[in-house]
Each structure stands twice: as structure tokens, then as C-alpha cells.
Amino acid sequence: MLAVPLFHSPEMCSKSWWPRCWCLTEEPRRRNKKRVPSFRKLLRTSQIKLDNKLKNKQYKQKSAAKKYRKEQKKLREAVRDAISRKPFPLEECKKKQVAGKYKEEEEDALPLDMMDEDDLKLMEDLAQKASFLTRDLSSNEPVHVKKRKHESVIEKYEKVPRRMQTEPEKELIHLLPIKDKSGIIPQAVEKPVLNVAHDEEEGTEEMEEGEDSVEEPLPVLTPEEMAAQRRQKLQERKMHIAALASAILSEPDNNIKKLKELRAMLMEQDPNVAVIVRKLVMVSLMEIFKDIVPSYKIRPLTEAEKATKVKKETQKLREFEEGLVSQYKFYLENLEQTIKDWKQRKLKKSNVISLKAYKGLAEVAVKCLCELLVALPHFNFHNNIIVLIVPLMNDPSKMISELCFEAVKKLFKQDKLGYASLGVVKVISGLVRGRNYDVRPEVLKVFLHLRIKEVELQKDSEDIAPKKKFMTYKEKRKNLSRMQRKWKKAEEKLERELLEAEASESKEKKLKLHTETLNIVFVTYFRILKKAQKSPLLPAVLEGLAKFAHLINVEFFDDLLIVLHSLIASGDLSYRESLHCILSAFHILSGQGDVLNIDPMKFYTHLYKTLFSLHAGGTNEDIGIVLQCLDVMFAKRRKQVSQQRALAFLKRLSTLALHVLPNSSVGILATNRIFMQMFPKMDLLLDNESQGSGVYLPELDEPEHCNAQNTALWELHLLQRHYHPTVQKFAAHLIAGAPTEGSGALSLDFSQRSATELFEAYCMKGMTFNPPVASVTPRRKDTFSQMDSFVDEELNKQLQQHISETVVHKSLDFAKHLKETSLS
Question: Could you give a GO molecular-function term held by this entry (predicted)?
């Protein structure tokens, strides 16, 4: 048998082969059966289980909070009840209850003389105890139960019986309670009633004393002192505004709360400086927002995003964005309210600012809104600014309406994608329809500044930009290794996919927005053509149709041409409006309308008939529209134009060039040059000999039957002696047959410019002569004597004799002279 040692050290136990349970000197350790779950096990944990745990935890927290709220509510109600009702001492209640018991049980009770003194004393002692008479007999608690220490004072008050109030309750003043052996005794005193008449007398005396003290004379300031005081106040406000603005611009994240302080100065109450301070604050806030607003739109956070924990930097950024959006919103509301108060002629109760000063404030507010409309089209509340600005385009005030027009034009010009333009067009269309087409024509003329052209719809900026060149296979084999070629192939594939995705997305977005915008524009135009043909908006509609006619759907071409011709035939249009009708019709026919079999001869006839309505006066500006019409009618449709029609227009245009301003003459002669180069037999008009039978009929309104081939361009010889040098050059060039080379050819400055460009280049709106007139130095006159001029003496004598003779004026009698001649 082996000898087992009974006692040994723990060190021996740990090193020996003996089992550890045999060690007598060390207590056995408890093994923790609950093991920590491993990472893999946590990964396998169901998401549903985790959600349930989270829901249970939240439910426990909610129930605990609900329980706490209920307890607090009960406590508040008990305190309110205890304060509102007057409790009575417990002993008095006991006595009353005992007396009532004796009265009710007087018949059944034993007479007192039949009881012993000891029994009577015991009954009186029991009557004094509250637990004997006042305890709830329906409860199962023992009579002599001890009161708990944690029993609140409010529960004691609740156990005290109440008394019905038969007499009117008097107003009490509650004092601090008194505590004795029986408990807390509340203290209260009735509120004393003072003599009302005496109080009124005292009040009047106090008012008189106050009036005497208020009516102390204030120091009278001179106008110079008042102006100096106003300048000092204004300087203090300016310094305060500058300090706040510089602090915000230096650290917007940390000083975003100062925006509220600066915005509060919009409510300046000092009447001496209120107007100027409010204007300065409006402009300062506008510049601050333009500087600190980010280049993206800030969206509100969802509940899930608010509940998640984020980094300090992210939380700081969220607080900054939230504060910025809220202050920007309040600022826009202040500007809107200022404009509304001015429009409604509404004064505030304080009357700090006069009604005249409100107009200046409203103008500054409109300027700020226009700046924000152009500068921050991507930020929040941009649509709200559009809704404010667009109705002001129709404002009676010329200054405010022009500010809004310029802002919308700038927005259209800088809007590349089309989001802002679409918003403005929607609001304008709703405004025109809502006011029953009673708006200013300039509101619709804004549509002419839209950046929607055929080129922009077909070609995007991505297509116009030079495409990225990729390496060819030979270049890769020559310059790269096998592994580098493999990586390069993968990179190029990824780049191609990214470029295609970006280009297609931007192009589709742009095309969609432009299509929607144009649909709204054309719907507005067609409504006016249908319902308000005699409206002052018709010229703007025709001008817009002339610009965007090439983008109209082919399905509307027939109906639109019929409407345009009926408008021209009605005779209600002015000359400029009829020109816009003609230009619109030919824009339609020169684009997608080529496929339609429509003869526009009636439009040619109308233009030929009305050309002589132009002159050097007010209609000289309409020459630009005529030149555009001629370009569309002849240059872009030369295959559909006959030779007779071209000859007739060439002759009439040459005659028109004689009685218009020089810039119009240059434009017309440039158009004639294009005619002579496009149509081969135009040089017939440079010859005096007639071709064919018939005589030229200049007064006939039909260009096909006026026999223009039998006349000559004699007007060019007159224009060759024109006072304007450019007109002289063009006339000499046309007389030579409009050659492209040689001595008679024009310089590149003239030949490469269109007729419309030349018309605008030589315009005399600024009262300047183009080219400028060279300064002429005055020549010195030669002095000569009278004798030097006449060498012959005999002739000189006859002259002197004739000068010295007196001239006798005889009356002229034509009848006598006729009789004498008839007799002879």
C-alpha cells in the first residue's frame, strides 16, 4: 500500500502528481459555470433577440418613469387639497362624533347611575382615543396597531373628516404650521378687509405725488446737441454690429448663437436711429449668410439619427447646421414681414418708424432677398424666396420691380442645370393665371432669358469637353510590363464606366428639367393666345414664340400657324407684333417644320407689303427684327424661294435703305450682299437694259408679279455719296457685283459679320458716330485786297459805277405786262 501524506503545503500540491482535491490545507475553488460568450457566438446572435432585449430595457425605463410621474401627481394633488381646505383638530371631531353617537343610542344606552365609577372612567378614557371611534371598521387591522414612521403628513390630513361648509368661506392667509405631540397644527388668519374709500383717497394722493415727480422739467437740448447725441448712438450701434459680424465670420461654428443677438437688432426701438440700424443689420446679415452658408442643402435629422451616438465633431457640426437654418429662416421671415407691413401700410403699435421710412426699409429688404436669390440657389428656403420675389415683379414701384427683374435674369443666366429656373417659371405661370392675365408685359419677357436652346438640349458640357485619351495596345506593350498592363486595363474600364454614368445622368436630368420648363412656358403662351388676344401681353408672347418656336412639338404646328396668320389678318396688331408673328412662323417652318407641306407665301407678302412702314424715326429699332426675318426667310430657305421674289425684295430693300438711319442702311446693304451671293441672277438689276416684257410696278404688294427684273438698282449710286463711310463702302461693293476677291471685295471685318451684328455695332443710341469723326484743324484765310482781285481797270470802274447807283424798285404788274406783250 502507498502511504498518503495527510498534510502538505499548497506548493507541493501544485507540483506533485496528487489530485488537487486531496489538498487539505486549501479550500476548493468554485468554478464559474456562466462563461463569457465568445465573439463568434455574439456574431451568431439573432438580431431579433437583440432588438427584444433593447425593447424590454426601454419598456422598463418607461414604466419606471410612468410610475414616478404618477406618484408625483398624487403628491401634488394632495398638497393642493390640503392647502385649499381647512383641516380641523382631531379632538374636536372626536367630541362631536361621540356626542352624536350618544344622541343616536340614547334610548338603548344604560343610564349612568347604574354603572360603577370605574366603568364610567374606563368608557371616558376609551372615548378620548381616536382609534376607538374614528378607525375604519371595514379594515382588518388591529385597533392598537402602531403608526408607521414613514407615514406622511399628507396621509394624516386625508384621514381627518371634513365638515360641510354652510357659511361663505372667508379669505385666509396661511401661516407656518405648529408641531406638537398630537401632530402638525396648521395656522391661518382671516384677511382683513380695508376701507375701499380710504384706499381710493390714498391712491389718488399717491398718483398726484407721482405726477408731480414726473412733471419735473427735462433738460432742453439744442439741435446741435441732439445731432451729436444721435451720431454717438449710431456709432455705438455700428461698432456693435461690426463686432458681432467679425466674430461670426471668424469662427462660425462657435459663435453661431451671436446670429440671434445680431438679428435681435432688427427690432431697434430708439426712434432716432431705428431706421438706419435696421437697414445696416439687414445688409450685414445678408453678407454673413452669403459667406458662412455651406455649398449643400441642410436636411432635418430623422429620429433614428438623433438617437444614435456620434462623435463630438459630428455633433458640433449638427448643432451649427441646425442653428444656421433656424436663424436663416427667422431672418427671411423678418424680411417678409417688413415688406408686408409696407404693402399693407401697416404701422406697429410702438410707432418707432414712420410710414414713409417703411418704404426705404422695404426696398432694402427686397435688395437682400434678390441677392440671396442669386447667391444661394442651392440652399434651404430658396423656393420661399422665389414666391416672395416673383409677385414683386408686378409691383407699381418701378425701383422694386426692376430689382426683381434683374435678379431673375441673373438667376436664369447662371442656372446651368435648370432647378431654379423651373421653380421661377412655375410661380410666374401661376401668377399670370391667378391674376387673370392682368400683369405687366415685362413679367413674361423674363422668359426670353432662359438658357434653353437646341444646342444645350442635344449637346451637353460633357460632350463638348475634350474626351480623355486612353493608351493604345502598342503603347502599353512598349511602355508597361505585363502586370502594369493588367492594372491599367482595369483602371481604364472603371474610368469609362464612371464617365458614362456621370454624362448620362447629368444629360438626362438637364433634358428632363428643360422639357418641363418649356412645357410650362408654352402652356402660358397658348393660354394667352386663346383667351387674351387683345391683352398687352401679346407682344411678349409673340416674341417668346419667335425665340422658342424651334422647340415646339410638331403636332401643334398647323394650329399655331393658323392662329398667327389670323392675328396678322385681323389688323389689330402693331407693326412690331406682326413682325414677331412672321418671325415665329418661319422659325417653326425652318426647324422641324421642313417636313410639313405648308406654303408660307402669305407671310412673304405681308412682310413685303409692310417694309415701307419703316423710317428713320421710332420704327428704326424694328429693323433688327426685319433683318432676322429676312435671314430666316431667304438664307435658311433659299431652295424654296423663287428668283422673282428675291429680285422684288432686293429692289424694295435698296429703296428702304435711302430713308433710314446709317446703322439700318448698313444692315440692309449687308442683307442685299447675301442676296446677290446666294441667288445667281441678281446682277440683272445692275444693268439698265430690261429683261422680258412688262414694266416694274413698285406700288404692287405682290412680290411675284411686280416685274422687278425690269428695273435697276439706281439707289446704290445715291448711297455711294452717303455721309457715312461704311454705307459708301457697302454701296461701292454692291455696284461692283459683291465680289469675294479683288479690289471691290470688303475687308474681313465687314464680310465675316452678319447683318444683325452690323446693325447693332453701328447703332447711335449713345449719340456717338461710328467710326468717329476726325478733328479738322481750321485753315488760315488768305487776306487780299479788292484791287488784287480785279486786274482790269476798265472792269473795276464799271463795277464801282454800278455799286454807286441807287436802285429803284418798281412795282410788278403782271396784267399790264401781259397786255403789252399781246398788243405787240
Answer: chromatin binding
